[in-house]
């Protein structure tokens, strides 16, 4: 066949068998064999309202012609009214009314002058709209715990419907491990509960083809409660065959199912007996009852076993799976363009199970029916054509089929002569990252087929490099590439008619890397987790970026994404766990890294809590564990509620291991119990399950008697019997009473006296004093008596003891301790109660050395004697060590016995003296600095000399190092001076008192010869902000100095009163806010500190005036009204008086004399009352004014913890001009504060 001048073809390259392959596309303006672009489906199911549409379309030049066959016979649309071909295509249209009559097998053929292409065979099935047949539905009645199967059985269809179970409110029936739907659409109950009773279990079938949902008549399930629910081992209801066999098709999906009934609810697990389950393709659904295997492979055949188990046993079922395959391509025949004289080979390799049958057609005609040709042969399934001629152009069909399906492929052989043409554009740019593989294309066309050669940028053959490979379609594969591979490659193509070449430019870039991959995290629920992904890019590549994915879904514009190299998940929950992946990308490559987020926390609530095997005293609980939330359940905690006595309060009853989803509990009689279970793991306890159905137990006799039985009297002639009542949980009935029995404990054992009472106490009267009794208390209720009670010994009331300790003696141990001994020789009955112990009563009567005190001084009339000190000795002891006594002291003591009623008579009085001991520390030690080398000391005698003082010992040393120096003083010396000391040194001083026994404890002081300030030296003080009720004082320091605390005081000038403390402040602060003042009031303000002697003295004073108006009762309305009334009344009286005088004349002489007499008799104190004043006020004021309140008030320091001003009141301490100590003390109290030059305490 001759081709038009300038004929050209375009070659498109597609990957085939791991490398680029070829498929021919010829431009429409040139002749081309027919190629199908649309084919009918293998199966088409239509319903009464659906038209039949069988698509068929093809390309070709000349234009193609279409024809159809039905059941392998020609089918002419024009011969059937209602059947037509769609304009411009071969699509067959059949009216819906004819679908039922014309269903069958159809095939389309597309032909032109170059050949015929065939479509696959399509099967048309016509169905009616599905309808559920009318049926009479009877109630399904079972007992609690029985298995239940609710059938569905929807109408059959070529396309199976989807099944749903709903109730009359269009709400899905809840499914779980106990209740679930099988693949057959039936609803299975492993065991029925009372709460499963509903009259409206409705099966719905959704048919996708006719877009119809139909429903079955509602099923009425009635579950009768039972007290005889028994556990039972699992039994498989699906599959019904004990060893079912299955045929799975390669590439399809295998579904295996096991549904079991039993009590407790069985759990299902799967295993493969001939190997492990295929990873990544197996999923367990429907609460592990369904195994779904996707993308079945031939290696998946074998034996799969399901095991259903509960606490009662297990059941097994083995599924035998055989994998077969519909025909599938191994090598599909490819169209080709060939030159005259060449040979063509169309490979057709197919596999399947059973082995497919393979056949060839040429232009739709079986090859056996085509006239023979010596140049045509079929070898190993391939069609081989040798020494091609132009009239050998054809379309060949390779067809394969077995019991599972069939395949059909069209391929044309086009014989033509053409020069070489390279279809790939010249100067094509390629970019790749290093270490990747690049494909440089060189698509050629020509007949005969051109030969392709590639040259490197150095113009050397590319195939010299082991990394290079050239495909049959001319594409060069090079990899892995390196930076040095960049440059211009050349493709040369030639055949017997011509040659051609093109260039390709290769650019090699740095590969994208993830340098910091995200790390897997295990987080507790509620925490915040951050993933980081650090990537490095080639700087010359743009655009580029980093994306985050969670379980394959891209995270974009969500709260979880930070749009950078970090991803933060806040407040993680269990739904957040999964695989997080970061992807760094450029236009040339992309790299990924992933991490796992695992969220852990407390386990979820358990499910399906069931009460099994309940009887009068025992119950068995069973449940299904909930989600462990990635932390194994360590234990289950069973809680119990007793509704009769503690409704609403669940208490922990028992704990069982995490692998035991059941518990056996014992119950008490007369109870109404509910139970709930919660799981616990390493992160705590989860939420409890829903409470179980209540269980009631009948009454029974008490199982135990009350404890804590006692018999004690509160009077000398009675006995009160008490006990601890039984808690309501031990009553075993609605109420309980107590049978109380008692009798005297005698040798002859008299009869029992008894009372039956609702509770304690029982009072027994007219009893002898402190007599023993046998006591029994027994619990009773409506069902009977409790066990035989134990006997308890009780006693009637006690009385005061009549016996007293004898043979009391004292043994001197040391100066502060003695041992006291005694005996108790009286008859035991004289105790008249239980012996509780003894009391030692002792009095201190003075010092041994005191004169004129040889006996206890008489107590003044009306005065109470001094109380003794008491030491209680519990039990039956006959002696005790009495410690804490004063040395060299006189004591007297007595001993008495006491019982539960009180104290008995005391023993005879014993007197004793403690020996002399070491003295106590001197009571005071005052240290004053005299000058730079001298300290003055003064002290007082010890408050407790503990003997005859023989003197004082003074030890002193500078600092904390070195041996101390010692000075001794006679006992009458109470002051001393230490001279020739180190100037400006600090001394540690220890003064001890001495007695004939030895030295006593010291009094310690620090003495300093270095002057130190005791009052701050201020530079200036100013009044800052002033308000109605406050003012702010500011000051500066005259020079750097230690931080000293002082007080701020104020006093109103309007109303004379005392000074008020406003607070304390440190000198370094520099300001103080004086609060709580009155508006419009003048105040005196002063700073007060301590001088060397420890006295408070003022060292600054000023006046302030607050803002505002002072409140006065004169502005009150009531006061103005009152004054106005008084003025008006006085005015009225004056008018009346004036009228009277104008009428009555003048006063008489008698009146005047009386008036004068009254004036002379007036006491003189009225005239001098206004001159009375406080004499001490002037003195205090003068002293205050002379107290040195200058801003620089400060003096020399002298270290002492006890101020010398304490002697004789607040005496003035006098110094010479050089600061030396004079040693004179004033015996009167001064009216003013001490000089600021007094001593300050040392640390």
From TrEMBL:
One GO biological process term: brain development
Family assignment from sequence similarity: Belongs to the immunoglobulin superfamily. L1/neurofascin/NgCAM family.
Chief location bin: membrane
UniProt GO cellular component terms: cell surface; growth cone; plasma membrane
Protein name (database record): Neural cell adhesion molecule L1
Region Disordered, residue ranges: 685-715, 1168-1193, 1222-1243
Localization per record: Cell membrane; Cell projection, Growth cone
Keywords: Cell adhesion, Cell membrane, Cell projection, Developmental protein, Differentiation, Disulfide bond, Glycoprotein, Immunoglobulin domain, Membrane, Neurogenesis, Phosphoprotein, Repeat, Signal, Transmembrane, Transmembrane helix
TM ranges: 1118-1139
Record's bilayer topology term: Single-pass type I membrane protein
Entry GO MF terms: cell-cell adhesion mediator activity
Low complexity composition-biased segments: 1231-1243
Annotated gene: LOC115945713
The keyword Membrane is assigned to this record: yes
């Amino acid at each position: 066949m001759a081709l038009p001048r300038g004929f050209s073809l375009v070659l498109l390259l597609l990957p085939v068998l791991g490398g680029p392959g070829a498929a021919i596309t010829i431009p429409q303006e040139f002749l081309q064999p027919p190629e199908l672009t649309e084919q009918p489906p293998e199966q088409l199911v239509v319903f009464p309202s659906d038209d039949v549409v069988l698509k068929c379309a093809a390309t070709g030049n000349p234009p193609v012609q279409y024809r159809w066959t039905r059941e392998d016979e020609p089918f002419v649309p024009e011969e059937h009214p209602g059947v037509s071909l769609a304009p411009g295509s071969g699509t067959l249209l059949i009216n819906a009314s004819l679908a039922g009559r014309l269903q069958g097998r159809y095939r389309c053929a597309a032909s032109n002058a170059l050949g015929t292409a065939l479509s696959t065979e399509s099967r048309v099935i016509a169905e009616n709209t599905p309808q559920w047949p009318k049926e009479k539905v009877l109630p399904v009645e079972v007992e609690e715990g029985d298995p239940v199967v609710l059938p569905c059985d929807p109408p059959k269809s070529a396309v199976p419907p989807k099944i749903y179970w709903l109730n009359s409110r269009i709400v899905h029936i809840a499914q779980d491990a106990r209740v679930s739907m099988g693949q057959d659409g039936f609803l299975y109950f492993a065991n029925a509960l009372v709460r499963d009773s509903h009259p409206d279990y409705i099966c719905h079938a959704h048919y996708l083809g006719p877009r119809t949902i139909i429903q079955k008549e509602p099923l009425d399930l009635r579950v009768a409660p039972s007290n005889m629910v028994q556990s039972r081992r699992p039994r498989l209801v699906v599959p019904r065959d004990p060893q079912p066999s299955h045929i799975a098709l390669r590439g399809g999906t295998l579904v295996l199912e096991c549904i079991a009934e039993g009590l407790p609810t069985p759990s299902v697990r799967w295993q493969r007996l001939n190997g492990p389950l295929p990873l990544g393709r197996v999923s367990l659904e429907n609460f592990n009852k369904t195994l779904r295997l996707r993308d079945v492979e031939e290696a998946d055949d074998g034996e799969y076993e399901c095991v259903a188990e509960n606490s009662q046993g297990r059941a097994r079922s083995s599924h035998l799976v055989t994998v077969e395959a519909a025909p599938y391509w191994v090598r599909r025949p490819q169209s080709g363009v060939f030159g005259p004289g060449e040979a063509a080979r169309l490979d057709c390799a197919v596999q399947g199970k059973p082995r497919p049958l393979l056949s060839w057609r040429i232009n739709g005609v079986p090859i056996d029916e085509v006239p023979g040709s010596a140049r045509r042969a079929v070898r190993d399934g391939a069609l081989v054509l040798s020494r091609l001629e132009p009239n050998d152009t054809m379309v060949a069909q390779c067809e394969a089929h077995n019991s599972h399906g069939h395949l059909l492929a069209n391929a044309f052989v086009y014989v033509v002569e053409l020069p070489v043409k390279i279809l790939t554009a010249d100067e094509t740019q390629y970019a790749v990252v290093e270490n990747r593989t690049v494909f440089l294309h060189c698509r050629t066309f020509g007949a005969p087929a051109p030969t392709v050669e590639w040259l490197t940028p150095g113009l050397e053959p590319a195939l010299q490099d082991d990394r290079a490979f050239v495909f049959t379609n001319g594409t060069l594969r090079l990899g892995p590439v390196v930076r040095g591979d960049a440059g211009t490659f050349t493709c040369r193509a030639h055949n017997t008619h011509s040659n051609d070449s093109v260039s390709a430019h290769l650019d090699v870039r740095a590969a994208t890397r993830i340098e910091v991959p995200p790390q897997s995290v295990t987080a507790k629920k509620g925490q915040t987790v951050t993933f980081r992904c650090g990537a490095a890019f080639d700087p010359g590549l743009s655009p580029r970026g980093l994306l985050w994915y969670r379980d394959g879904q891209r995270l974009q514009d969500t709260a979880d994404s930070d749009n950078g190299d970090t991803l933060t998940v806040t407040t993680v929950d269990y739904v957040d766990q999964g695989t997080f992946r970061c992807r760094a990308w450029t236009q040339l490559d992309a790299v990924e890294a992933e991490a796992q987020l695992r969220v852990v926390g407390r386990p979820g609530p358990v499910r399906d809590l069931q009460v099994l095997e309940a009887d009068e005293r025992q119950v068995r609980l069973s449940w299904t564990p909930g989600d462990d939330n990635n932390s194994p359940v360590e234990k289950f905690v069973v809680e119990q509620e007793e509704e009769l006595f503690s409704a609403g309060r669940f208490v922990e009853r028992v704990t069982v291991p995490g692998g035991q989803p059941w518990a056996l509990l014992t119950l008490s009689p007369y109870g109404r119990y509910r139970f709930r279970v919660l799981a616990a793991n390493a992160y705590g306890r989860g939420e409890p399950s829903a409470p179980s159905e209540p269980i009631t137990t009948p009454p029974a006799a008490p199982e135990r008697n009350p404890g804590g039985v006692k018999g004690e009297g509160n009077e000398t002639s009675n006995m009160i019997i008490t006990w601890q009542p039984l808690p309501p949980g031990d009553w075993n009935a609605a109420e309980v009473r107590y049978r109380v029995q008692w009798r005297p404990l005698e040798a002859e054992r008299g009869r029992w006296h008894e009372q039956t009472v609702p509770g304690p106490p029982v009072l027994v009267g007219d009893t002898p004093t402190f007599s023993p009794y046998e006591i029994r208390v027994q619990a009773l209720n409506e069902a009977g008596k409790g066990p035989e009670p134990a006997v308890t010994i009780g006693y009637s009331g006690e009385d005061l003891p009549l016996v007293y300790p004898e043979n009391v003696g004292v043994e001197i141990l040391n100066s502060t301790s003695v041992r006291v001994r005694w005996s108790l020789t009286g008859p035991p009955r004289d105790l008249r109660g239980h012996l509780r112990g003894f009391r030692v009563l002792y009095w201190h009567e003075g010092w041994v050395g005191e004169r004129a005190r040889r006996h206890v001084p008489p107590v003044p009339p009306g005065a109470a004697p001094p109380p003794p000190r008491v030491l209680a000795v519990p039990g039956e002891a006959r002696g005790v060590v009495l410690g804490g006594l004063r040395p060299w002291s006189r004591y007297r003591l007595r001993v008495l016995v006491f019982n539960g009623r009180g104290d008995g008579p005391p023993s005879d009085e014993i007197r004793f003296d403690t020996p002399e001991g070491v003295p106590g520390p001197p009571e005071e030690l005052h240290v004053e600095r005299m000058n730079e080398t001298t300290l003055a000391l003064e002290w007082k005698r010890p408050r407790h000399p503990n003997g005859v003082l023989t003197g004082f010992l003074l030890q002193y040393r500078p600092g904390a190092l070195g041996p101390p120096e010692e000075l001794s003083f006679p006992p009458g010396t109470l002051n001393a001076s230490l001279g020739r000391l180190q100037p400006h040194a600090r001394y540690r001083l220890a003064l001890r008192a001495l007695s004939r026994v030895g030295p006593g404890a010291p009094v310690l002081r620090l003495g300093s010869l270095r002057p130190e300030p005791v009052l701050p030296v201020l530079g200036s003080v100013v009044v800052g902000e002033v308000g109605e009720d406050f003012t702010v004082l500011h000051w500066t320091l005259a020079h750097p100095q230690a931080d000293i605390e002082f007080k701020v005081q104020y006093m109103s000038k309007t109303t004379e009163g005392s000074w008020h403390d406003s607070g304390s402040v440190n000198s370094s602060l520099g300001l103080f806010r004086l609060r709580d003042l009155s508006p419009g009031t003048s105040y005196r303000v002063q700073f007060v500190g301590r001088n060397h002697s420890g006295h408070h003295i003022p060292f600054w004073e000023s006046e302030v005036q607050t803002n505002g108006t002072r409140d006065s009762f004169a502005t009150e309305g009531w006061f103005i009204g009152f004054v106005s009334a008084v003025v008006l009344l006085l005015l009225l009286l004056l008018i009346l008086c004036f009228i009277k005088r104008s009428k009555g004349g003048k006063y008489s002489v008698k009146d005047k004399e009386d008036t004068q007499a009254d004036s002379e008799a007036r006491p003189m104190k009225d005239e001098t009352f206004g001159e009375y004043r406080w004499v001490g006020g002037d003195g205090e004021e003068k002293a205050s004014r002379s107290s040195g309140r200058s801003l620089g008030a400060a003096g020399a320091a002298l270290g002492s913890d006890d101020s010398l001003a304490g002697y004789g009141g607040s005496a003035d301490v006098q110094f010479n001009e050089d600061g030396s100590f004079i040693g004179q003390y004033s015996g009167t109290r001064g009216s003013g504060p001490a000089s600021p030059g007094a001593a300050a305490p040392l640390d």
